[in-house]
Amino acid sequence: MTTVDLAALRRDIASLGEQSAQAAQRSAFDLGDRTIDRVFRNGLQRGAVHEIFAEEAGDAGAATGFVIALALRASSDQSPILWLEEDFAAQEHGFPYAPGLKNIGLDPQRLILVRCSSPQDVLKAASDSLGIRGTGAVIIAPWSNPKCLDLTASRKLLLTAQQTDVPAFLLRLGASPSENAAVTRWLIRSAPSQSSGANAPGHPVFDATLIRNRQGMTGHWTLQWESDDHVFRQIEPVSGTVVSPPAYRSPQTRKSWARPY
Asked: Could you read off the pLDDT of 34-45 as tens digits, one per residue?
């Protein structure tokens, strides 16, 4: 018969609980705005798949900027950020521009751009990249709606991201939402920036709609990205003409504090 020291056992369990809590804290990131961050309870999961769509073709640049901003929020200062896309992608929407990356707060030396010959190769490279601990973030950008990016493939990406605590950001340009394992899904539209004075350009601004959130509520915000501090700030939108929502979703998804998805 084995004698168990209950007091020591309780201490061990408590220690494990503290370690688990610390791990959970390390495995989350936020946007930097308290009002919006409450939507995510304990923060956005780092080891997860987050999906970002451009609302219209002309919003591709805004969606790309938003993905980069999320990757910066989710990763440490010097960790590499991998960008995976098909080799013809530059012909469709251009390619990352070093001065532009600096303006949004990303050191171009941190970005590793990988071009693949097919969407299958993009997903294979993404799985391999997510399997490397210490990677800051992986941006996965297959063009349009490839058949290989199905529920099974996205679940594999999610599992790998969870195992290594590396965030995966699916940048869906030229695509429409479909069922997959993404933890959050964002719909991004470009928005006018607010001048910092003397007609100087202001910070990047995104019209962001969270249409899926497996951690809590959805919502719609106008977000300003402050590249020097790497934080989002909610601002009041500039008044103007309202763009009609696309046909593949209902207008109700643009309301703030919608029901949990």
From this structure: 989 999 888 999
Q: Are 80 and 130 in contact (CB under 8 A)?
A: no
- How many angstroms separate the Cα of 204 from the Cα of each of 85, 101, 104, 166? 24, 12, 8, 26
Q: Determine the 3-state secondary structure of 108 from DSSP.
A: helix
**Which tokens is 183 given?**
């933890």
CB within 8 A of 158, min separation 6: which ones?
A: 48, 49, 168, 181, 182, 183
DSSP one-letter code for 252: G
Task: Tell me the domain boundaries of the chain.
Answer: 28-254
Q: Where are the alpha helices (DSSP H) in the chain?
A: 6-26, 34-37, 60-74, 89-93, 98-104, 119-130, 151-164
Q: Of the candidates 247, 234, 138, 246, which has an alpha carbon nearest to the alpha carbon of residue 191?
A: 234
Q: What predicted TM-score, i.e. pTM, was given to this entire model?
A: 0.80
CA angle 231, 233, 235 (to 5 degrees): 160
Considering only CA atoms, give the Rg of the chain.
20
Class of 28-254 per CATH? Answer: alpha beta
Q: How far apart are CA 220 and CA 187, in angstroms?
A: 9
What is the number of residues in the chain? 261
d(CA 252, CA 255): 6
Query: pLDDT for 154-200, tens place per residue?
Result: 999 999 999 999 999 999 999 999 999 999 999 999 999 887 766 77
| Pairwise CA distance, residues 178 & 155, whole Å | 13
CA dist list (Å): 61 to 38, 54, 92, 133: 27, 8, 12, 29
Give residues with Cβ within 8 angstroms of 26, minimum separation 6: 46, 165
